[in-house]
Design a protein that fits this description.
about 250 residues, 8 helices, de novo design (two linked rop proteins), elongated, alpha+beta, about 40% helix, OB fold (Dihydrolipoamide Acetyltransferase, E2P), three-stranded antiparallel beta sheet, about 20% strand
Length: about 250
């Protein structure tokens, strides 16, 4: 039985038996890893804090034939605000689920882990949550090879400089002429496509300064969420909770 080290973030945590937890980590070294944290539900257990979702830590793990087991955890950043602030917690749950459903165990991708750390920092700051989420969605699609065509018509290759349309089934934007070939395409402005391209290449601390009108925000969400839904065949489970929390805050 061998030991290995992981720098990782806890994506998911669920109870096992009377005192244990199974946690899903996304790590720099091995990508996604599932492991048991023995006794992590006991109040004074040394693994308790390291098994909390959003926690960024250094983990020492025993390799087993079944589930690996966590031996030790040194916390780098607990990201406590992402559990204690309701809106941030809902946004964090959505982001962590995105990383969970779009990654496979044991398949590390070099730029995903630092991207995840940057996402958590942006969520913890007083950033524009909706813009952060759109940046996360389009950033994940790009890093995993699912980025739709945003700069030219996906059918004819024509440059897009005015109001146009977006086709989920064809995987990108359409010019006015080619839109006639896709009855399911929905309208978007050239400004919306330019904003998505800006979010792709801009660090979160700069993107948060962007001022985006409400109608364009709706188009941004329609593009990214529709692409995710098409890839997964369903919506992200935590999206409904996030929408409920945001609506409750708006009414309060």
């Amino acid at each position: 039985m061998s030991l290995y080290n992981l720098e990782a973030v806890v994506l998911r945590s669920r109870n096992l038996g009377e005192a244990d937890k199974i946690i899903t980590l996304y790590s720099r070294e091995r990508g996604k890893v599932r492991a048991v944290a023995r006794g992590a539900r006991r109040p004074r257990n040394r693994l308790r804090a390291g098994a909390e979702v959003c926690t960024h830590g250094q983990y020492l793990v025993f390799e087993n034939r079944g589930l690996d087991a966590i031996s030790q955890c040194d916390i780098v950043n607990s990201h406590r605000q992402l559990r204690e602030d309701l809106v941030k917690a809902a946004g964090g749950a959505y982001v962590l689920e995105l990383f969970d459903v779009f990654t496979e165990e044991g398949e590390p991708k070099g730029d995903l882990f630092p991207f995840l750390l940057a996402v958590l920092q942006a969520l913890e700051a007083d950033a524009d949550l909706e813009l952060v989420l759109r940046a996360v969605e389009i950033g994940l699609l790009a890093r995993l090879g699912y980025l739709p065509e945003l700069k030219a018509c996906v059918i004819c290759g024509k440059s897009l400089s005015e109001a146009t349309a977006f086709s989920v089934s064809r995987g990108g934007a359409l010019c006015a002429a080619c839109r006639q070939n896709d009855v399911d395409a929905f309208s978007v402005t050239a400004g919306t496509l330019a904003t998505l391209n800006y979010l792709l290449r801009t660090p979160f601390d700069q993107a948060r300064k962007l001022r985006v009108p409400s109608d364009m925000r709706g188009e941004l969400k329609n593009i990214t969420v529709s692409c995710i839904r098409a890839l997964l065949g369903r919506d992200i489970n935590s999206a409904a909770f996030l929408a409920l929390v945001q609506e409750t805050v708006r009414k309060s």
